[in-house]
Design a protein that fits this description.
Blueprint lengths: L1 E6 L7 H13 L6 E2 L3 E2 L5 E8 L8 E11 L2 E10 H18 L11
Antiparallel strand pairs: 1-6, 2-4, 3-4, 4-5, 5-6
Amino acid sequence: MQILIREQQVAPSELAVVLQQELITLYGSRPDFQAAPPQPQPDGSVLVPILYRDSADPAAPLIRGNAYAEQRGTKFSILVLTAPQEQFDQFWESGLSAIANSYSISPDAPIAQ
């Protein structure tokens, strides 16, 4: 799991673009990196499924993830949940979905430095 929160105003129409740019920065150099098209979510956030390998070894397992971006007040946040591709659905059902569905940021809380 990776969480990134910062003071930044991102227009709702730009959430997908900013998320895709951040994912390329974070994971784009990883072997076999792929990002699926953005999917708007009912709560106003954006989901981008990703896939990559942690190693250049072609035998290394693929890592699958769901990356979410949201804007709350002046806070912009990205949440990335990952697991080995072969186990992702199992992990999703046993807890990752609960994390994704309960994650929220408070627009009034200060960001720790």
